[in-house]
Design a protein that fits this description.
Blueprint (H helix, E strand, L loop, with lengths): L5 E7 L9 H12 L3 E8 L3 H13 L5 E5 L10 H6 L4 E2 L1 H15 L9 E5 L2 E6 L3 H23 L7
Parallel strand pairs: 1-2, 1-3, 3-6
Antiparallel strand pairs: 4-5, 5-6
Amino acid sequence: MSAIVRVAAVTVSDTRVQHDDEGGATLCERLDAAGFTVAARTIVRDDVAQLRALIARVCDRDEADAVVFTGGTGIAPRDVTYEAVDALLEKRLDGFGEAFRRLSWDQVGPRSVLSRAVAGVYQGRVLVALPGSPRAVVLAVDAILAPILSHAVALARGESSAH
């Protein structure tokens, strides 16, 4: 990786706060272990407008190269991370969700198809939406994001990459 990738880690929840946000803590731990810089960690309510406002702020202020969300990707009525992120994507990384669900199948079986994990590019940033489960976060970061995020960020920014 030619430059350290700055990641905004966002927990999407109506009930979590920093001290009980296990998914967010796991996300930050795994990103750090993979060599990324956690530029920000925040908790945002399950609200499309709030999520999109956060994305706009990160892009406008160049706060991070990627935004990784944990939570809100299921099919419960309050789960809106997918709607907030997917509609903004200029380029979708369909293989991300496919790979996540395939790997998740080995851990949770048919329930893996209930995940709406998604990734893509918006305004030169990589956006990734993961389930809120710490186990899902470890799987996604360690098996998928760690090997590809630096390269994906470079491509999204129109830069050449060493990979």
